[in-house]
Amino acid sequence: LQATPAVPRIFLGRDLLIKEGADYITNIAQAFLAILGPGGIGKTALAQKIIEMESVKEKFKTRSYFIPCDILPNVASLIQGMLQCLRIPAQEGKGQVEMLNDYLHLNTIQMVLVLDNFETLWYSKEDRAGIQNFLEKLFNFKHVSIVVTMRGPDGPGNIGWYKLGTESGIPPLSADAARDMFFAIAGNKFDVSEKTEAVDKLLKELDYVPLAIRLISQRAKTIPPESLLRMWEDGKTSILREGKGDLSRLTSVECSIQLSVNLLNGDEHDLLSVISFLPNGVLKWVDNLRKMLPNFENLDTSVAELLDCSL
């Protein structure tokens, strides 16, 4: 597969999370690590950094496989992607499932599979049962460790995933790490001491989300922070993009958000449109949301769907 993204050169404020993930994978015989959170929080980059750690390389040698699930729409394509990553040749008279099963039975040296952006498969409305069944079979191979990155509150399947970060998933960057990242990317085009106040205000507006910071920092190479603040006030997420060609989840915050929105049905869309008018969400939503929207049908179900998609 040629869809594996490049590991970001500038990746700050995540050292403790990288170490935590690497320590877990290294010290557990069969590891199930879930890297969870909303789009743009840096889940893919974290997974890449973790499997690049020396302790992880020492344990798995060259048997670390990165599988980008956002281009794999169903379980059949996932199996095909795994066959490609594992370089399992076609065998006459055998189906793909049988070839993969035979390979994992015969090759019992420890390996780690990174299932990146797994929400594409897990929240697909086509074949959840098929994905669930495949995962359960995969879990039974004791030499196969799995790292999954996905939007949502929990890892897939009926298994106790080790969640990296907090119970809510990967947190935003600290203010200091966000500032360091901004200046590392933007460069020394201006006097840092004079611009820190405007930069800090801008980064706070962006909620210290790594993707947003990276994209705004690119713009800061030519545009002063004060002007970027005004652009943000006028255009919000529409200014958080890189380039003018085809955009993706890695080059546009709006594209990243849209991937989550695409997983929703009509009721969830309506609820999200209401919540989006509120600057800080709904305080104590379990009690207050029903009071705010007494006539909203399927309210609890819609909330659950938004949480599942990290929205």
UniProtKB/TrEMBL annotation:
Residues 9-151 form the Novel STAND NTPase domain. It holds the Pfam family nSTAND1. Transmembrane segments: none annotated. This is Novel STAND NTPase 1 domain-containing protein. It comes from Dendrothele bispora (strain CBS 962.96).
